[in-house]
Amino acid sequence: MNEPRRQTFRAWVPIALMAILLFYPLSFGPACWMASRPGPNRDYESKMRLLNGIYAPVYWTHHYSPPVVQEQIENFANLGVENGAIDFYFDRICFFEDAAPGADFAFVY
What we know:
- It contains 5 helices and 3 strands, in the order H-H-H-H-H-E-E-E.
- By secondary structure, the chain is α+β, with helices and mostly antiparallel strands.
- The protein has one domain.
- Helix 2 runs antiparallel to helix 3 (about 45-55) and helix 4 packs antiparallel against helix 5 (about 65-75).
- The radius of gyration is 19 Å and the shape is elongated.
- The model is unreliable at about 105-109 (pLDDT under 50).
């Protein structure tokens, strides 16, 4: 009798690696969007530090890429961000919050 063969650990490793390589860069934009949302204490600094730690390879890619790629990464980071802008300075992500309508930005991180 032939029993169905159970998939082994080795069969799932390539699938997991492909998922990580696909979803890690795709999660960057939504992570920036969520970090830019004001919480009850408006603690942007800790959110930006967390992003800087998790997405350090994205910043490295941004720093060493041609301007066309840098612009696309910046656009993806700012997709859905309200009341401010996310920008890259010295290989770190920074959030600039609108201080008031028509006023300058306030540097957050």
